[in-house]
Amino acid sequence: MAEPHICLVAPQVFPVLTGDRNLQVIGGAEVQQNFIARGLRAAGYPVTILTGDFGQPDDLEFEGLRILKIRQRGRTIPVLRYFHPRLTSIWSAMRRADADIYYQRCAGAPTFVTGLYAKTHGKRFVYAAASDPDLNRPRTREKFQGRGGWRDLQLYRAGLKMADAIIAQHPGQVETCRRWNRREAEWIPSGYVPPVDARCEPEGVVLWVSVMRRGKRPELFLKLAQMLPGLRFRMIGGASMAQGDRSAQEFFSEIESSARALPNVEFLGFVPYHEVEQHFDEASLFVNTSDYEGFPNTFLQAWARGIPTISFVNCGAKDAHGPIGVVTGDLSEMQTAVARLATARSAWVDEHRRCSQYFRANHAMPVVIARYRALFDRLAAPA
C-alpha cells in the first residue's frame, strides 16, 4: 500500500525551505515544517507544500518536494477582500495539490480554510500547535488581540473543531487541549537535524537567538549581560515581521542601540537560519527570555550539541533527574544559573550529557517521523 500524499499548508516556509539569505522570514513553525517535509519525503511519502509568493515559479519541484504557490496577490473585491485572495488562494492551492492529508501549523484563519476544504472534499486535516496559547482558549484570545482580531479568532476556533487530529508539542499542551477544547491531542515532539559537524564550545559565548519582538523580552538578556560583565554574550535576531506589529522596527532599533552600548555584548541582528548554526557551534550556554513558548527550535539546536539552556519556560522536557534545561523564576535566578554553569565545569558537563541524551531519545528526526507515520497510517486507514 502506497504512503498517503501529505500536503503542508505553510504560507511562510519558502525562505527556510530553500535557504534564501535575502528573505528575512524565519519562524519556529516554518523551521519545523521544513524538517517535517524533508523527513516525510525521506520516509517515502509524497509531499506537497503550499507556500506564499516569494518570487518562485508557480509549480516547483525542489529536492523531491512539490511546491505550489499560494497566489496572495491580485484584484481584491470590496467587502470580500478579507477572504479574497487571502483565503480563497489557499483553497485553490489545496484543490490543485489533491492530497490525502493536509497539515497546517499555527493558529489563524488558514486553520479554518484547511479544515473546511478537507471536510468538504473527503480529506483528512491535521492541525499542529505552534505555541502554548494555540490550545489555551483564554490565551488564544489574548494572542489574537494584536494580530487579526476577533474575526481570525473565530475562524481559527471553527477550524480547530474540524481537525481530524491535533498535534501538541509537549505533554503540557496535551493537557491544555483536553481542558480547554475537550479534545485529545497527539504528542509528537519537535524534530531537528543538526549539521554533521555540529559542536559546542565549553568556554564559548552565552547565546540568545530569536525574533526581536516584545514577547521575547530581549531587554532581559541585555540586563543579564550587565549583571555578568565577565562573560561574553551574543545576540541574534531580526525585527518582527508579524502583520499588525507597527512598532517592530522601532523596538528592534531600541534593542540594537542598547546592545551596542554594552562592551560584553556582540549584536548581530538578523542572520539567515542556515548561518545561525555556526553561532551555536561557538556557544557554551543558550538563554531564552520569552514569557511563553511552545517548544523552541533553538532548544533543539542547543541540546543536539549538548549546550545547556536557561529560560523562564518549562516546555515539558524532563528525564529522571528533572527538567532538561534550567528553568528559572526571575532574572536573579537566571543570573545565578548562568554564572554557575559558566564557572563550574562539573555542573556544565552534567547538563551537557543530559541534554545530549534527551535530544537523541526524543527529538532526532527518525524518532519524530516514526510518530508521524503512526498517526498518518491511522488517519489513512479505511473506516
Plain-language structure description:
The chain has 383 residues and is an alpha/beta fold. The chain contains 14 helices and 16 strands. The protein has helices at 14-18, 28-42, 88-97, 109-120, 137-144, 149-161, 171-181, 218-227, 248-260, 273-281, 297-303, 331-343, 345-362, 365-380; strands spanning 6-9, 47-51, 59-62, 65-69, 101-105, 124-128, 165-168, 186-187, 205-209, 233-236, 265-269, 283-288, 309-311, 318-319, 322-323, 326-327. Helix 3 (88-97) crosses helix 4 and helix 12 (331-343) packs across helix 13 (345-362). The relative contact order is 0.12.
Brief sketch in words of this structure:
This protein is an alpha/beta fold. The chain is 42% helix and 16% strand.
Order of secondary-structure elements:
EHHEEEHEHEHHEHEEHEHEHEHEEEEHHH
Query: Mind telling me the C-alpha Rg?
Result: 21 Å
- Considering DSSP H and I runs of 4 or more, what fraction of the residues is helical? 40-55%
Distance from N terminus to C terminus (CA atoms, Å) equals: 16 Å
Query: Largest sheet at a glance?
Result: 8 strands, mixed
Nearest-integer average pLDDT:
90
Strand content: 15-25%
Enumerate the spans where pLDDT stays under 50 for 5 or more consecutive residues. Answer: 74-80
By secondary-structure content and strand pairing, the structural class works out as alpha/beta
Overall shape: globular
Widest sheet: strand ordering:
3-4-2-1-5-6-7-8
> How many H/I helical runs?
14
Number of beta-strand segments: 16
